[in-house]
Amino acid sequence: MSTYDTLSLAVGDDGVALLTLNRPDALNALNSTMMREFAEALDEATRAEARVLVLTGAGRAFAAGADIAEMRDRTFGDMTDADHLSLWERLAQLRIPTIGAVNGFALGGGCEIAMMCDVLIAGEGASFGQPEIALGIIPGIGGTQRLTRIVGKAQAMDLVLTGRRVDAAEAHRIGLVSRVVSDADVLDEALTAARKIAGFSARAVRAAKECVLRADQTPLSEGLLFERRWFHSLFAFADQTEGMSAFLDKRPARFTDG
Ligand code: CO8
Prior knowledge:
Elements: E1 2-3, E2 7-11, E3 16-21, H1 32-47, E4 52-57, E5 61-63, H2 68-71, H3 76-81, H4 90-93, E6 98-102, E7 105-107, H5 109-116, E8 119-123, E9 127-129, H6 146-151, H7 153-162, E10 166-167, H8 168-173, E11 179-181, H9 186-198, H10 202-214, H11 220-233, H12 238-249
Parallel strand pairs: 3-4, 4-6, 5-7, 6-8, 7-9, 8-11
Antiparallel strand pairs: 1-2, 2-3, 9-10
Helix pairs in contact: 10-11
Bound molecules: octanoyl-coenzyme A.
């Protein structure tokens, strides 16, 4: 377990990394120290050869957004010169799957980070929203772009223009989250899913993630070709023979990443 000032990281022998945002007194508001440490922790998880990353928040929030106290006196020059915010994007660039375990508030930048995760598991008491409009700003790390791609224009406009919060049930209905479970079960559910993914062939998992993400970025014909090429490629590896042999032999597969 590595403890930073604003978060902690634990990478288990099972290949699952658990990254916990940890400023509970400020509802895990995302400040510049946390952004720097977040990038360092992602590097650490990569060095430790984590196969799946679970991201959660300590206390009663996943994250209630960017730290408003830190941001209030910033100028345009401060924001653009230091390129404040850019390191958060590192989460979206991870090659391994990421699972957000959302307890409580996921607002503003917190909702945007949640949307960078590949799978989102929310507790019944979770709430999501892009309340930046009420602060005289707009979302800055994907709240107008990822949200629109995930839930469509009608829902995204509603959330971004009114700043209203949606509860976990509504978030599930509009396709913002993958699963809703009881608040007490969120982390366990996420860790169980992470362990399951970590047990599969790493190359197949990487291919699956890359292909799904491609769907947002290419015309259908290109996406289908990309998927087909990956599908063919996986037949180059021993894990394909093992997975299919295990099925036919009626035994669990022993993937070796070979
Ligand atoms: N920034 C700084 N401090 C915060 C934040 C925040 N975003 N959210 C909560 N806190 C602090 C409160 O100031 C309070 O501190 P203190 O105890 O010292 O007064 C403590 O956390 C507890 O909060 P509340 O007392 O307000 O708790 P409530 O249960 O009454 O309310 C809410 C919870 C509804 C979540 C409320 O705190 C709230 O509305 N928070 C702000 C939400 C918000 O507007 N978020 C958007 C911020 S802007 C943004 O995210 C820009 C995104 C683009 C860049 C992203 C880069 C990371």
